[in-house]
Design a protein that fits this description.
Structural class: mainly alpha
Order of helices and strands: HHHHH
Largest sheet: none
Radius of gyration: 18 Å
Number of helices: 5
Distance between the termini: 43 Å
Strand content: under 5%
Number of strands: 0
Oligomer: single chain
Shape: flat
Length: 73
């Protein structure tokens, strides 16, 4: 799979897996099977919880960021 170009993957109708939690949430939300399997309340609760998790992750300042950028200020 790693040897295929993006064009090759598209020609073969091979989709890429989500690269972020945000992309995974969007894919889950777009899949009608998700709502069917979980039911409407659990489905929406799960999406809301994961979106909140993504926001918290994005607002977190990692040790790497502190070490890298603190020296600039």
């Amino acid at each position: 799979m790693y040897d295929y170009s993006l064009a090759d993957l598209k020609t073969r109708h091979i989709d890429m897996l989500p690269r972020t939690l945000q992309e995974a949430i969007d894919a889950f939300e777009a899949d009608p099977l998700s709502r069917l399997v979980m039911g409407p309340l659990m489905y929406q609760t799960y999406i809301d919880f994961r979106r909140q998790e993504w926001e918290e992750y994005h607002n977190h300042i990692s040790d790497w960021e502190i070490k890298r950028y603190l020296k600039f200020f």
